[in-house]
Amino acid sequence: MVSSFNHKYLGPLKLFLVLVALFGCSPICGKTHLFLRNEIRNNVTLSISCQNRDHDLGAHILGYKQEVEWILSIFKFYRIWCSASWMDNGVLIQGGFHVLDEKVESCPYMYDICIRAAKSDGVWAYNEDGVPHMIYRWPGKALEEEIKV
């Protein structure tokens, strides 16, 4: 009886342990960490207030290079909306955006982190290879690359 138990469950147990070793616990245990970081520039404070359909996720004031983190279950659908504001040389910049809208884009759940960065031109997301793409442009702001040209 003991040997049949070992043979019957040994394969799935080995597979589970290999998946945990390769991908970490998040895809299997069901948690992903979503970060929103202030990368606008030194001495600029970003004020955000976020919510999803069911909960107010709170207001946060982020200094340069500070971030807020949400821990999400991969077994639920998420749409997280944030309103944000910051001062750009005495001019108030404000807007609202989906920091995560899984109908449009999901976090790369094979990994356990999902990063968003507020920059001077907008809010950027990073794919699993670390390649950035803009998900929101601040009103009246040009892309950083356009400013440098």
From TrEMBL:
Question: What keywords sit in the KW lines?
Answer: Secreted, Self-incompatibility, Signal
* Primary location group: secreted
According to its UniProt record, where is this protein located? Secreted
InterPro entries given for it?
Answer: Self-incomp_S1
Establish whether keyword Nucleotide-binding is in the entry: no
Q: Name one GO cellular component term.
A: extracellular region
- Provide the GO biological process annotations: rejection of self pollen
Q: Which family would the database say this protein is a member of? A: Belongs to the plant self-incompatibility (S1) protein family.
Report the protein name in the record. S-protein homolog
Species annotation:
Thalictrum thalictroides
